[in-house]
Amino acid sequence: MSRPSLRTLRRHEITVAFARVLARHGQAGATIAAIAEEAGVAPGLVHHNFADKQDLYSALLEQLIAGFRHRIDARATTRKEDPLEAYADAALALDESSDTIAARAWMAVFAEALSDPLLFEKMRRLLDAEVLSLERRAKGRLTTRNASAVLAYIVGSFVFGAFAPRKAAGFAAPGAKKLLRALSTN
Amino acid sequence: MSRPSLRTLRRHEITVAFARVLARHGQAGATIAAIAEEAGVAPGLVHHNFADKQDLYSALLEQLIAGFRHRIDARATTRKEDPLEAYADAALALDESSDTIAARAWMAVFAEALSDPLLFEKMRRLLDAEVLSLERRAKGRLTTRNASAVLAYIVGSFVFGAFAPRKAAGFAAPGAKKLLRALSTN
DNA sequence: ACATAGATTGGTTGTACACCCAATCTATGT
DNA sequence: ACATAGATTGGGTGTACAACCAATCTATGT
């Protein structure tokens, strides 16, 4: 009896709407009402699917990192180039249209993490995990510090992309490749 | 007759308090009341010195960039090393105590700029100006794109520093030097 | 066809904030 | 000493929001 769960689907839809509203109107403009409207849904439904705003931010962070990793994995499997260069290309494939939203959403999540200890910890763990993942991909050619530096460059390019998408698209990926070459041993 | 104006001094004090509150409690926690308390001043005084919150954010951005440039200039005049390496060292001298506040304040201003068009434009101009300043310092050894990449790395290190101060302090400056070496011609 | 559990709605409530302002205070020039 | 302009106070006001909830709807199993 009863219906199957739409929870997962709805959560995803609402999180996407959340990212769009954040990107356009920032933290202050991202009211539950605005998010609901963007998702084409009643305000109460947001609370039915998310405990509170913390929950929304947490889900958004998961979705952002999932999107990032998906881009990386999709690229790595289809090409036969150097895995580090492929990583750089995929991570920084900043087409100015769609991923400006992601870049701005990242900014908002970074800022929100300043006031939400749980989100802050989650962010730390994600950064650590991403550094580790990059180290593994490098197979010994990158130290932890150098992998961190590469990730810092990527994050910085996202910030740049949030403010000057066109420019960031121009320098991000080539710069990352050069940085990787400079930092990786042998 | 009448008293001399304390406006400039008060604005500076309140802006410093603003940065501290933002760093500790984020955008949501940075209420006028909280800022006033941190500055040891009555709430009304904040409005006496700042038109509104936009004004506060704008002043904070100016103060952050001024601090950044001051670090750079102080360093460049005292040492006789390569100007680009000096730039990297000074920009990324992230001692984990004091400048974590600045790093987090930067995050908050980035996020706020998403919802405040004036602040957004100001940020764009500041990024452009900083890229130009770096190009000049490089005396032809850096293209605009490569200077942008270096600045992106610096910004990314700030973000990293906001979340993992100790780690960022370890890799930021050395990484920047290697990036500069890889990007600068001759 | 009917019963049921979950989905969805939109109005209500309490709270917390930015901004305002009237009153008071204090340092300076005359 | 007095007058003046700015500094400073703290509470008042309206607004806007998150969170809640009672009512209604709808898909699915039986």
Folded structure, characterized:
The first copy, chain A, is an all-alpha fold and 186 residues long. Chain A has a domain of 104 residues. Chain A contains nine helices and no strands. The longest helix of chain A has 26 residues. At the A-B interface, helix 1, helix 6, helix 7, helix 8 and helix 9 of A face helix 1, helix 6, helix 7, helix 8 and helix 9 of B. The structure holds a DNA duplex (30 and 30 nucleotides).
Topology of this protein?
Two copies of one chain form a homodimer.
Chain A: H1 7-29, H2 32-39, H3 43-49, H4 53-78, H5 83-91, H6 98-113, H7 117-138, H8 144-163, H9 165-183
The structure holds a DNA duplex (30 and 30 nucleotides).
Total helices of chain A: the number is: 9
Distance between the termini of chain A: 62 Å
Beta-strand content bin of chain A: under 5%
Give average pLDDT of chain A, whole number.
Answer: 93
Structural class of chain A: mainly alpha
Order of helices and strands of chain A: HHHHHHHHH
Question: Quaternary arrangement of the chains shown?
Answer: homodimer
How much helix, percentage-wise, in residues of chain A? over 70%
Q: Which consecutive residue ranges of chain A, at least 5 long each, have pLDDT under 50?
A: none
Biggest chain pair interface: A-B, 52 and 52 residues
What does the radius of gyration of chain A come to? 18 Å
The main sheet of chain A comes to: none
Give me the count of strands of chain A: 0
The 3D shape of chain A can be described as elongated
